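A note from the maintainers: we've had questions about how concatenated examples are separated. There is no special marker in the raw files; a new sequence line simply starts the next protein. For clarity in this README we add a label.
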Amino acid sequence: MSGPEAGPRRPDVFRDLASFDGSGIDRGRSVMVRCLWLAVSGTVLMRWWFPNRARIAVLRAFGAVIGDGCIVRHRVRIELPWFLELGDHTWVGEGVWIIDKAPVRIGSHVCISQGAVLCAASHDPRRPDFPEVDRPVTIGDGAWVALGATVLSGVTVGTNAVVRAGEVAARDIPAVRPAATRMKGEDDDR
């Protein structure tokens, strides 16, 4: 409930969402451009019949930096494409959600599998007004964010690292040496 019928704030509830106003949040483009993006992305851009080459061109037109040979499948939800960078030969699978209220940088030869979430946005739970705290997400070259995995705000996934299926990466994941360079019998810490 909101408004006068909601009653007074309860003393046992810390969060006061009525005090959240969103002021000072920079979305990187005007309201008009954001509305145009919502219209384009919601109507044709992420439909199965819309060609990948055209999808990449539209993302670039809205400010995304996308390298050569990238594949962005249908049903991918990108909040603010002007905060998105993809390296060369990177795949973004069906149903991926990129909440890029801060920059999301994805390296080259990266696979972001179906249903994964990259979330460069959060809130400060220590304050009653619950202000936004948006921090970049970085995915290193050769990394794999597997099916249904989530990478949270401020996290860096190192070169060749893997975020396992369904895993929530709340802290940085270190780089991994390619298997071809490891000694026989050597294994990763993870």
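[label: protein 2]
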Amino acid sequence: FWKDVRIRFFRKKSAVLGLVMIMIILLLAIFGPGMNAYTYSGQDLSQKNFAPRVPGIEQFGILDGSEKMSTTTGTKIVNNYVEKGKDDVYYWFGSDLYGRDIWTRTWEGARVSLIIAVAAAVIDMVIGMSYGLISGYFGGKVDMLMQRFLEVANGIPRLVIVTLLLLVLQPGMITIIFALMLTEWVGMSRIARAEMLKLKDQEFVLASRTLGAGSFFII
């Protein structure tokens, strides 16, 4: 099965290109913030709004810190690195209004986004699927009680939950992940329940019960 999947996957150029791009983003999110001497929160107001400058490439007149500026007399080429005597300074993506390194901040933000995305997927798999599968498999009163609780949880606006958590807890990634644990699994649980209701009376499930398999083993 997996061999067939692998063959079909690598036959599609778009899929391979997408995989390569994802791997590049993943590697830069992991190692990008540590590839230079800057931190994501460090700032230097004397180096604000610098254009991108990359060592080595600048020798070819590309990404050398130069930028075009429009003035009342026309357009001129400006290089803040040269004008401010910062010949040994390099901002690969440039610097922002507060003199912060955009390269470091970009990949630090990508790292946080990926961590939250992985956390959301794990929460969906662990909480959402488990809740939905148990509810659909046992049915009856168990299903009714679990679905009523689900409706109550889904009826609370997510923005209200996140706002309350930010007021009670310190703002940060842990707070966001905790908010996901309270709200984001509802949709997955419904999908899992629907699949369980469709499959629980199939012949292979009945055969497993006949052979003495327990409920949670079947789930």
